[in-house]
Amino acid sequence: MTVSALAVPRAADLPFAAEASARAVVDLVAVRDNVRTLGGYASGAAVMAVVKADGYGHGMLPVARAALAGGATWLGTAVPAEALALRAGGVTPDHARVLTWLCAPGAPFERLVAAQVDVGVAAPWALDEVAAGARAAGRPARVHLKVDTGLGRNGIMPGDLPDVVRRAAALEAAGDVRVVGVMSHLACADEPGHPSVALQARAFDDAVSTVEAAGLAPEVRHLANSAAVLTDPRLHYDLVRPGISVYGHSPAPELGAPGDFGLRGAMTLQARLVTVKDVPAGHGVSYGHRYTTTQDTRLGVVPLGYADGIQRHASGGELGVGGPVGVGRGSAARVLRVAGRVCMDQFVLDLGPAATERPGDVVTLFGESDGVARGALVPNATDWAQAAGTISYEIVTGIGSRVPRVHVGEPEAAAGKDAS
Fold first, then answer.
1. pLDDT, tens digit, for every residue of 153-204?
2. How far is CA 328 from each of CA 244, 248, 315, 419, rounded to the nearest angstrom?
3. End-to-end CA separation in angstroms for the chain
4. Closest CA to 194 of 186, 184, 205
5. Which residues have a catalytic role annotated?
6. Which residues of 88-101 are buried (b: 16+ CB within 10 A; e: fewer)?
7. pLDDT at position 71, please?
8. Chain-centre distance of CA 89, in angstroms?
9. N or C terminus of the chain with fewer C-beta within 10 Å?
10. Residue 89 and residue 78: Cα distance in Å, rounded?
């Protein structure tokens, strides 16, 4: 079976809106295809596409629809507002289960239950607040007991779990809640073979046993993030929760580039040069003059900066290797590095003395690629992460709101049938 093709224009071929100096082009068919690929890794487990943080900066609602077209049956969010926005945006309970797992005291539990949003319970207080919300909503709450199996972050400590389970069983008997899931988060899944992974799996199995021994029958057990989906079938259980891989990025770059896992980057970040000018050798560039031209050359100004999510840590020259940018097309295509400091609204490229670029020409910060280390002339988000000393998650989620998102590939079309 092959996935039906949908002609989606390449970002480089899309005309820029006249008023736009930058844009993030999001290929929804890539999202769909990535989810299908992840489903193939999932060992028969259902797939929850994690769409928190505005779909990792890609646009939550369009991404959610594309993920469902790719076979996801669950959508994951961090905070309640995200889950409620999915329901308000037309993702009905008939379309997908929606889970939210990071709730503070006083969260809108009544609204969540009424909207048929599943709720992660990570502390004893939360169970009673969810139950109160369920009574106000007039229907039982669907809850997932979230256990801290070793991450040391949000979750019920194993020593507290028996009391929480007894309380949950009483609330289930009263008709206030239904314990439909047990979940946890991994600390080191991006380091296959790390001893904590096996220890967390054992702790998770013990937690499930504690829940079941109390007479509760959860529908789904879920532990696997993107790295575990791609590298460790033992951790797949009934449901997997890929996040960064949905958007086409490798969760463990040292283990493979996106293409090695069958993934395609969904976002292409581009900008138009606003200034191109000749400068002499010895000319300082940007704040602090931490880059100085070594020859007569041509500079280009890119109208994106740290206010747009371009990491200041990706500054170049004396400050570091600099974030990579794809410049030119055809035989003139090349990768250049940020020259000097990244500013709030702009950064500079040393285009070289023979450059033919002009104001208005498009440059690409990152897009669908296996990375410049593999000879790509279009960088990917991991290339920027390495230049900035961070991870691709921070690169894509950090792209600011004044960069318009341009979605290509209609979700309905992206849901096309498989063809033999």
1. 999 999 999 999 999 999 999 999 999 999 999 999 999 889 999 999 999 9
2. 29, 24, 21, 37
3. 5
4. 186
5. 52, 287
6. eeebeeeebbbbbb
7. 98
8. 20
9. C
10. 17
